[in-house]
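Sample 1 of the test manifest.
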Amino acid sequence: MTEIETRVLRPDAAGIAEAARLLGAGALVSFPTETVYGLGGDARDSVAVARIFDAKGRPHFNPLIVHVPDLDAARRFADISGPVEALAKHFWPGPLTLVAPLAEGHGLSPLVTAGLDTVALRVPAHPAAQDVLRVFDGPVAAPSANPSGRISPTTAAHVLAGLAGKVDAVLDAGPCPVGLESTIVGGTPLALLRPGGLAQEDIERVVGPLKTAGDTITAPGQLASHYAPNAAIRLNANAAHPGEVLLGFGPMQSDLNLSVTGDLIEAAAHLFDHLHTLDAMDRPIAVAPIPNCGLGRAINDRLRRAAAPRT
Ligand code: TXA
Ligand code: MG
């Protein structure tokens, strides 16, 4: 990815307005939450979301947390009811992320949910995060603002040390008070999916005992079946065999193309949509070779899972 100049914004009215404008233009903005600094992009814009993965250098498309200003906004994207709703009412805004079924007409990029039928939603309490989310008035996908495999950032300086040149702006509002990522809860029965800034005991006082990861819970990114289309998939195909549909990459004849110009960010943005469209054609899918660099590693990881033998 070409290096860009990373601007530092102040959390005053002008800085917040600029952060919101940048998000609306598809740019990446790092902003503070009470847990850690997030690397934010418009969660409805697949190219912006692909750029998040690219900036972090993530080798996998893990589903991302979508940030909204309040429970009413969250309801536009997920069906929130039962114990999940009780937790939302009790702990939002705060360091708790809730996983719930996607709502009809949610409009989120399939790259945010990694093709799952649920979404992780968070209402941060930090005033600067609240301000950005209210002025932007849309869902913001934001993993922690650090390169993949590195320590999560709790100051703007940490963000710049890891991501200067890869993010359009950092909103600097000082250190994050919690310093630990949000706790993630979801599923039926309700389970603790990631320990974090809100204690399990506090959650259990509201909804009773949570199921915990006795290794019965697998991170969604690791579950091959979540990404498997119905159709058989053949990788590294240079042409379709009779009966197959071809998912192309770069200038070539194909049924659908991830990126005619061979742009890996554009390819990532199209990946889940194109797989869904081709799967609906009920024919085996052949996929052109994708270079194994940059976002190509995450694309190939996902394609390998999709092509793996079904159990
Ligand atoms: O404190 C935080 O939560 C920070 C700040 C920036 O808000 N954000 C953060 O986001 O840690 P992220 O995207 O790195 O967290 C993603 C986690 C992953 O572990 C993923 O497995 C889980 O959320 N997740 C996302 N969507 C999910 C889903 N539909 N089902 C289960 N887990 C999900
Ligand atoms: Mg992280």
